């Protein structure tokens, strides 16, 4: 049975997006679309440090009669709303530079290097947007000089929702999926700013399913026990013209045991294997000849102890409306589930395919009968577990006229070959 509208009584959805903003610090999931320009209080101005002629808008001029500068800074000392798309430079007007330090308002330093003559220091990355900086520099034979500037906030921003949830333990089929709040036109810049690493080490590659969705996976399923780290360095990355990212953080996920279930709809059975050993075999009922179940590799992306399934939400009119479907686990975005079934005769399981495309197991109302296959399979499963459907039968082709599930329909990118998967990377 297919559905995508429900009233969750209990369960753990995975498609729920998670976001975070702010430079390099852990955060709770929040939706702060634009970083505010930080308040700015000009530091005391030292003798010998004056504004240059190319000062940015909002700079504070020095008093008339000030001595000639020994150091100049770009952005100019006292600048407010400086650009954040260019590096910071400190130049000695005479002599050489002994020391340069550029710090944010939280005390962290902006890295940089000297030229060969030590007359110029340039930051190795751009300053962050919406941030106040203090520059402390020493030219040979001179006292330390201090200058300040603040950068403007971006006019428009985007964030990336990621799946799975930070800290979650998932099955071996769980990809890392990032969905963006704004269409990305510079895919290479955005993909370069996101890293996914695994321990034990394995090659992980990104694949763009659309201009708002980027998934990552290895060639084969994750090894049981793998720790995965997602690094988001999207802050100030220009994903589209004038639209900059706001996130800079690392999150980790974990892979649990390996469980892969194979549904053979010709035999009308499902065999559950865990860590290479057969755990159970259950009789099932799949889609009928007019509503064939998708074939292919599918990943459990949401789980509900009970949920409502209504045919009108998947374009099937008023054929059904069941408000207490037990032990439902989502396999596709378009509405394919593997779930318990308490309304059909027990005799159909293992003998007939009668559903509207879902995979059903015998169950009872209330979702509390521990003796049923529906309860047992739900109890043994977790988000990210793999369900492989074989031999769906018929040629009517499921939900859109194709036999194999679309890799973008749910977290089902495993249906792409490794060559095709790599071809979807912008890098």
Q: Can you give the helix content as a percent range?
A: under 10%
| Main sheet properties | 5 strands, mixed
Structure annotation, total helices: 3
Major sheet: order of its strands?
Answer: 1-24-25-26-27
Please tell me the CATH architecture of the largest domain by its name. Beta Barrel
β-strand percent reads 25-35%
Using only C-alpha atoms, the radius of gyration works out to 29 Å
The geometry reads as elongated
Please report the total strand number as a whole number: 28
What is the name of the CATH class of the largest domain? Mainly Beta
CATH superfamily of the largest domain: L,D-transpeptidase catalytic domain-like
Stretches where pLDDT is under 50 for at least 5 consecutive residues are: 1-67, 394-401
Return the CATH topology of the largest domain: L,D-transpeptidase catalytic domain-like
Structure description:
This is Lipoprotein-anchoring transpeptidase ErfK/SrfK. Pathway: Cell wall biogenesis; peptidoglycan biosynthesis. With 427 residues, the protein is mainly beta. It has helices at residues 187-192, 373-380, 418-423, and strands spanning 10-13, 71-74, 89-92, 97-104, 112-114, 120-123, 132-139, 145-150, 156-158, 160-163, 169-170, 176-180, 194-199, 205-210, 213-217, 227-233, 238-240, 243-245, 248-255, 259-264, 269-274, 277-283, 296-299, 302-310, 321-330, 337-341, 359-362, 386-390. It folds into three domains: 36-153, Immunoglobulin-like; 156-256, Sandwich (Immunoglobulin-like); 259-422, L,D-transpeptidase catalytic domain-like, CATH 2.40.440. The strands form seven sheets. It has a five-stranded mixed sheet with strand order 1-24-25-26-27. A five-stranded mixed sheet has the order 22-21-20-28-23, with no helix packed on it. Strands 2-3-6-5 form a four-stranded antiparallel sheet, with no helix packed on it. The longest helix has 8 residues, at 373-380. The chain is elongated. Mean pLDDT is 85; it is low at 1-67 and 394-401.
